[in-house]
Amino acid sequence: MPNTELADRVGLSPSACLRRVQELERSGVIRSYRAVIDPRAVGRAFVAYVAVGLSDHSKKSQSAFERAVTRSPEVTECHNITGAVEYLLRVEVSDLEAYKIFHTDVLGTLPQVTAITTYVVMDSPKDERA
Length: 130
Fold this sequence. Notes:
Layout: H1 3-10, H2 14-27, E1 46-54, H3 59-70, E2 75-80, E3 87-93, H4 96-105, E4 113-120
Antiparallel strand pairs: 1-3, 1-4, 2-3
Helix pairs in contact: 1-2
């Protein structure tokens, strides 16, 4: 949003608002800015969250898994989590067929992976990732 609009919303002058935003950027509170992309417009309408369990809980095994998913463009988020599995992935592809290929040819070939549970996103009534 333009600085003038932000200044109006928060009740500051544009110059004061800009100084505060710049200080938030310098101090690291604001880490980056992102564009919000419509997944359908770029051929990624099929979204799934995938819980992945590893056979080995060592740092070496985790690092190998993380390197593999980092190289996979289908994986838009990778989170190391606590609980019954080690990782939660957000996967975006064109359709179910493309997901099946990713599931089989990428995740299914990683030696560390012992469990894969897929949760298909049907709708996202609230999504504030941007």
